[in-house]
Amino acid sequence: MFKAIISAATGIMFIITGMTVSAQENFKPQVQKVTVNGQVLYELGSGAKSLEIDSAKDVKVEYTFANNGSSPASQELRIFVHFENGGDILVNGDYQPSIPTTQWIKGKKIVDSGSYSFAKQKGKTFDVFVGLFKEDRYDMDNEGVADDKRLKLGSLICK
User: What's the CATH number for 2-158?
Assistant: First the structure.
């Protein structure tokens, strides 16, 4: 009887683990659109662009995500936003999405926004990258996602 309980428990553990992995594999987050001060920086199917920004004013960035998979994430993921100049992250915009990734259902758009200051960055150009992470980065369902599991949204030129 003891062996039967262990076998049953092992079988249940296998099923639960299998469901968790399967649910995570069926989560396919995608960046659909990103605007900067109302101008499109990135749009699905159009790719990355370059925009000029006024470094003396705060910059509002709006992100639109969706899940193309059949299941939400099995754990809450955070979103990272890196504004890089020469490979160095000079402005970091990591955040917890307004709707947890565990509630991202297929086809529902998730819109978040953030404001960033580039006051001391006049004359610099920033490459903007986005992705999802917990301890490690998570795959995204966009063309152009690099091996480091992040998507280049475009570039901001600080005037």
Answer: 2.60.40.10
